[in-house]
Each structure stands twice: as structure tokens, then as C-alpha cells.
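Q: C-alpha cells for this one, please.
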Amino acid sequence: MPLFKNSLHKKRAYLRLALYFISFGFVIALLSSLINFRLQTNNIDTAIQQRFESTRVSTYNQLSEIISQLESSVDALAENPLMKTYLLRPSQLSLHNLESLFQAAAAAEPLFMQVRFIDAGGNEQVRVERNDDDSITLVTNRQLQDKSARAYFQQTMQLAKGQHWHSKLDLNREQGQIQIPIRPTYRIATPVYLDERVAAGVVIININAQPVLSNALRSEIFNVLMIDREGETLAHFDDSQAWSRYLPERESVFAQQPALARALQGSADIANNYLVEGHYALDITQLFPNGEGLLLLFAPKQEAISTLFRSNYLAALLIAMIVLLISFPLSWLVALIPAKLQNKLSHALSEVQHANSLLDRHVISSHTDTDGVITDVSQKMCDASGYSKQELIGKTHRVLAHPKASRRNHKLLWQTITEGETWNGELYNRTKDGRDYWIKSVISPDLDQDGQLIGYTQVAQDISSKKALEKLSVTDTLTGVYNRRKLDQLLAEESDRLNRFQHQFSVILLDLDGFKQLNDTYGHLAGDDVLVRVAGHIQRRVRQVDQVGRWGGEEFLIICPGTDGKSAALLADKLRVYISQQEYSLDREVTASFGVAEGVVDEGAAHMIKRADDALYQAKQQGRNRVVYQDPDQARQSS
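A: Here is the predicted structure, written as C-alpha cells:
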């Protein structure tokens, strides 16, 4: 009996203690839910501020990248070899090459509305414009203007090399009237220097700023507008209130909100005191150094605030229900933890998701297994290649490789990454619809926790525009083959390989017979057509390793690596026969004479070309339409 009573007493004490803690837990649950709801409500301002921080960073970086790209574009044009060639040796050909360069630059960037070169006297030498139908027009010489009195020309000419002039953000005008529909315009210029003393001219680019402003103002959380230091509205989430500086019927922000004007004008440091009269301010003066003092203002949308309220209410209710359901003696210890963990996890998750979204949309990347089979790709890679994720996953990168891509480069890539090293280089690709593009790629091995190889990761950047400009600078604009400048470089490289490694090579110099008479009889357009056709015939009949270029006028040069003179002479004779057998839409035959020379150690490229030219002269003297090959022993005797 005593044992039974003692046991019953313990059970009753346990029940009383359990009821006490359950009651205590119930009270704590109610209090914690009320406190959590209050804290979550107070945290709305913090949540909005965090959203602003994320928006501020992405917007600022996006604008900074655009301005940096624009400055790089004017620098690339100012420093391009074609620009320097034109300034040093002005001619119709060098001007034509410069015009082609500016047309290519305008075509490569949809934002470019006008690309110009103004010489040191203030006269436009090249002006390329984008039309309303998005076509590119080269302005004729008669329409080029004198800009010497314009402030932007005078100010840019005073800048040092590498500095940039930035215009105000204004509206495009046609014949003195603001163009309708409205087209915001922004201009960047830089001086062109041949030496470090006096500027030789100015390169200036006009861009259509509307897409840039639209991206900057796009936000799900905030209503965004751009103002200058006087409170004039330049861009507004409501288009009917934008551009108050240039449209007198529209009021400025300061006129609409005097309190905001006083707060902004009284703030010494907008960057650190960015919450002004319910607006978050982002100072972008450094991005647009044009004296306007530009600010972006972010006002939280009412629907966004309401959404946060509803989310916080539901979160608090859910926590209260959970605590009530798990009211144990230790419930008071865990009541304060969920809210803190929720805030930290939500913030961390938001940052990770945002970072992943930015990488997916803006960075070309892919993952493969150890066999090179694609397991994942970014959206940016899909945009660049034209393939969907479903079309790429399960395949190798060969589906993207251009048919003319270097096999040696591909072999070196695999050799590097399979040895556990990181590969850096350029890849030549082709999109799904057949367009060519280049990427600069970094490929690294992926290892698991045990250090075992599980695949590879690629991160890349599209460099197609850069490659297009590089190709233009070494290509003859009429025939599409290499120009004289590129041929000189290739000759020097082959001559160096011959001297260092005895790597034999030969050259073929050919000249069209009677070309002057052809031009005089049929006209220069017919002559140009013959040059284009002959260049195509040559390219189709030579090897892939052979280099073809226009040496000058009606002369073409073929560089044949790893080839002795006799083999080159056989190739020249095949070309001679092939060219003479083709039809040229003329009532006469088109033939060519050939001079062939084999490289000699320590001879030098210039002397080798002279030997080929002498052989070509002999072919002309012997009746034309023939091949003359100078034996290398003759070259050694003459040297």
C-alpha cells in the first residue's frame, strides 16, 4: 500500500508539473506569436531597405557596365590601326577602310545611333547613322558638316589621351524640334592622338538612351524616376511626367513635392543619407560626369508593402499554431528562435537566389560530366547559342563548335583539363541558326569532397564584336581576303620559323594579265568583279593552311607553309589553268602570270618577295599566262 500511494503521488505530481508547463507553454506561445507579429511588422521597413540595397547594387552595376562599354567602344575606334593609317597616309582607300570600320561598329551595337570622326579642324570626315528601320547609312561627303564651333568638339580636343567627354542626357531633335516619339540621347567622345602632344581629331558616339533608362527604371518593388540637381525629371515610371526640362507643360519633381526639394538640397551626403521623404536616393553623378548631378529616386509601391504585410501576418500565424501544437516544458526556449532563424534564412536565400539569377541571365556558363556531356547550362548560354536547355543537356560542346574551329586548340583544351589544370582560351562557335560567334572561355575541373574528378565547369564571355573588328582590320574590303598589312605579318612569322626551325615555305605572286586594258574597256566595276571572282577561285583551290591575300592592285600573294618551291610551282600552274577556264561575264579570257619563290634561311621576307616578283616579271616577258619558278640556288648565289 505505501508503495502504491507513493507511485500515485508521483504520477499526480508529474501531471501537475506537466499541466503547469503546458499552461506556461500555451501562454508563451500566445505571447511569442504576438511579439513575432509585432517584430515582423516593424521589420517591413528593414525588408524594403534590403530590397533597395539589392536593387541599388544591380542598377548601379548595370549602368556602370554600359558606360564602361561605351567608353571602350570610342577608345577602340580611336586606337584602331585603320584610324592611324588614315591620319598618317590619307587616301581614298584608307578613308574607305575607316568608313567600313565605323559602319561595322554601328552595326554591332543596336544602341549606337550615330558614330563620327571629326578631324582636328572640326570637319566631319566619317559619319554613320542608324535609320528608323534600324538600317545603317554612311553619310555622303556633301552632307558632312563643320563642327569646329561646337562646344563638345572644343572641349574634347582639350582632353588628354584616354579621357572622355560626356554629354547631358537630353532629347533628340530634328531641324530644331524635339523628335516625336521621344528619343533620349546620350553622347560620349574621346580625342584621337598620333603622338602625346596634339589631338588629331575626335571620335564621338550618340546612343539611344531609352533602353538604358527603361532597364534602370524597371522594378517590381519600387516606382523609379531620374532627376537632375534642379529637380527636373528626366525619366519617370509614368512616361507622361518625364522630361520636364525639355517639355515646359510638365512639372518638375521639386514643384510637385517642395518638401522633397528641401530635404535633398539640405542633404550633404546623399550616398550615406539615402532615405529622403519616403524616397530612397541613388547618386549616379560619377557614372554620368556631365554636370547634371543625376539621382535615381526609388519609392516603394503600395502593393509591395501590402504583400509584405500579408506575408508577415501569415508567417506569424503559422508560428503561433506550431508553438501551440508543440507546447512542451521547454517551449519557452524555442519560442524566440523561429523568428530569428526565419529572418536570417530568408535573407540568405534571397541573396543566393538573386545571385544565381544574375549569373544565369548574364554569364555564359555550363557544366559537364567527365566525358564532356553537358549536364546544365545558363540561360545566357542559351541566348548566345540559340539552343534551349533541353536541346543542349545530354550533348557535348561539339554541337556548338564551328566547322572551321581549330582541332589543335580543341586537343590542347582537353589535354589541359584532363590533367587537372584550368584552360583559358578563345572558342569559335556557331549558333543554331548558323551565325558565327566567338567566346573567351575558362574551363576548370570540378572535384568532390574526396578530391575525385566529377566534371568540368565553363565560364565564358562573348567577344564576337571584338573579333569582327580584328578581322576587319586585316581584311581587304573588296575581295574579302587578307590585306597587305596582314600578309606582311604572316611573311615575317613564316620567315622566322624558317630561320629558327628550318620549317620550309614558299610564296606565289600572281598578277592578272592585261588588267589595265580590261578596266579601260569594261570599266572599274567590271574590273572589281573580276578581282572578287579571282580571289574566290584562289581560296577554293588552295589548302586550308595556305594564306591568301591581295598584295596590291591586281596582284595576289599566296603563302604556302611546309611547301618547297617545286610543289608551289605545281599549285601555281593548277591555279593558272583553273583561273583561265572560268567565266567572267566578259567577251574575253581572263588569265594570270605567276612568280614562285622558295624561302632561303637568313634571306629575309623582302628579298624573297623580290625574287618572286622577278620571276613574275619573267613570266610576263615570256608571253604571260605562265608560271616561272626561281630555284633557291639562284637566290643563294644572288645573296
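A few notes: DSSP finds 20 helices and 24 strands in the chain. The chain has five domains: 2-70+317-359, 80-211, 222-300, 363-464, 474-638.
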